[in-house]
Amino acid sequence: MRMRRNLLFVMSIAAGLMALTTACNKGTKDVSKVSPTTGWAYNDPKNGDFQVAPAKEQITGPGLKFIPGGTYTMGATEETPFYEWDNQPRKVTVNSFYMDETEVRNIDYLEYIHWLQRVYGQDYPGVVRKALPDTNVWRNKLAYNEPLVETYFRHPAYHEYPVVGVSWIQANAYASWRTDRVNEILLIKAGYLDYNPTQKDSNSFNTEAYLAGQYKGKIPEKRKGLLHFGKKGKNEQNDTTLQRVSFESGILLPHYRLPTEAEWEYAALGLRGNTVGNRVVERKTYPWNGSSLRNDNKKYMGRFMANFKDGNGNYMGVAGDGNDGNAIPAPVMSYWPNDYGLYNMAGNVSEWVMDVYRPMSYQEVNDMNPFRGNVFKDIKRTASGSIAPKDSLGRIQYVPISDKEAASRNNYNHANNINAGDGDFESTIQSDWGNPSRDEIMNSTRKMYDYGVTTLISDKSRVIKGGSWADGPYYLSPGVRRFMNENKASATVGFRCAMTRVGDPNESRQKKK
Q1: Is the distance from CB of 504 to CB of 57 less than 8 angstroms?
Q2: In the predicted model, is pLDDT for residue 452 greater than 50?
Q3: pLDDT digit string (tens) for 359-372?
Q4: CA–CA distance, 267 with 224 (Å, rounded to integer)
Q5: What are the pLDDT digits (tens) for 199-228?
């Protein structure tokens, strides 16, 4: 199955490159030759060479499944036994996006560690150490799990199992690395770069650095002098450089990232199978149809649909006839996928999402792509306004937008919007509090989320979704939400990546054209 998925990705790359090559060979036949608003020709070196790519849709990146956007009721689908009331149902809309078919595997993360070791290990060994999973999460004061500490991450027997012991910070770093590796291979397949196994430290491929002109890489000899979509001019026959790919070319993919809580929950519910026309005909308790934990198919009648803890001490069932058959995480393609083709959106391991946790998140005003955690940033620039040099690891630097830059805006006034509308001191108007400065607000002891004093919730509390191999049935419901510090890790928490869909939100409609 994994081989089939990789083959489909290669085929989608080939189809995209064939369309690009055809467009290049035909000059500008697949796009308007002349601007209808200025009369100037596109892709013409004689008049400034404004490059216009042929119109095309986003390809599906490796490991991803397309999730068509829509409206759904986000929140609890059953009564909470713990009286948390932190996920009251409300109707929201999410745009179309892509989601990993499975949780990120141990072998995927080992590939990441290997690349870091090869590129940064000699001069920056701390980068590698910082990325390693915490295998000590398997230790328990009253259990013998030492073999898992030593084997779960690295032994080949566990290659297809979900990686655990990874913090929210580490999961985001992996997603950024994955973005660069996918975009690098796309540029190689398109002929704009050559393989460069000797890249090291600051001379390593980074998508933003490449787009900013701060990464050159190795240029294939046969492609030197190639223009994007036009033809060579008379003075360009001896050109020994390659015109750089811009994001406008459509070759590069958007970032891999963690899904938002709204995206994860929407994808887990898999609403494709229980709709009539444009209506959802039932509320799903679990990612599969119905409200039972067991399969109702005659062939698999009575088998558990997920990997979870079925009561005290029962992690896998009796010997020889295990209900879910796995005492710890199972291989990522175990059990049955939901209607979007996603595996283990309930059970196996819980998963990190992007959002900062707040118990009152359901009261957020925004009902379109809801998300808590925005800290708006911009590329760091020099005094002259040009992009600042990349850092020692080859990455473009970003800085939070200053209050001065945001002062005249209508849609936000600060870079950090984590606490917007959450009921804390900054977001509450109280006449007896006067008109404090922003420094007084941020340093106030009267904040609602005063970590370690009045609550365990802080700005570093991140939402985790989905039940795990060690959780009971209640946590298998997509609406259930918990939180953990972004720097912490657990043997029950893993992650999967998502990607924004650009262009037409309906993939099937594009295929019919």
Answers
A1: yes
A2: yes
A3: 876 555 688 999 99
A4: 44
A5: 999 999 999 999 999 998 888 876 544 444
Q: Which residues of 266-297 are buried (b: 16+ CB within 10 A; e: fewer)?
A: bbbbbbeebeeeeeeeebbbbbbeeeebebee
pLDDT reported for residue 28: 37
For residues 115 and 173, the answer to whether their CB atoms sit within 8 Å is: no
Token match 């992007």: residue? 354
- pLDDT (average), residues 333-355: 95
Quick one: how far is CA 420 from the chain centroid? 23
What is the amino acid identity at position 338?
A: N
DSSP track, 351-398: EEEEEEP-TTGGG-S--BS--S--B-EEE-B-TTSSBPPP-TTS---E
For residue 154, what is the DSSP state?
A: T
Residue 442 corresponds to which tokens in the numbers above?
A: 């941020």
Q: Where are the alpha helices (DSSP H) in 63-189?
A: 106-120, 125-131, 146-151, 168-189
Instruction: Give the pLDDT band of residue 431 (cuts 50, 70, 90).
Output: very low
**Which one, of 501, 358, 446, lies nearest residue 65 by Cα?**
501
pLDDT at 24 over 90: no
pTM of this structure: 0.85
pLDDT of residue 370: 92
Question: How many residues are listed for the chain in this entry?
Answer: 513
Nearest Cα neighbor of 95 from 513, 511, 501 is 501
C-alpha distance from residue 346 to each of 32, 98, 202, 235, 371 (Å): 48, 18, 40, 61, 21
Q: Give burial (CB, 10 Å; 0-12/13-18/19+) of 360.
A: middle
Residue of 158, 199, 243 whose CA lies nearest to 494: 158
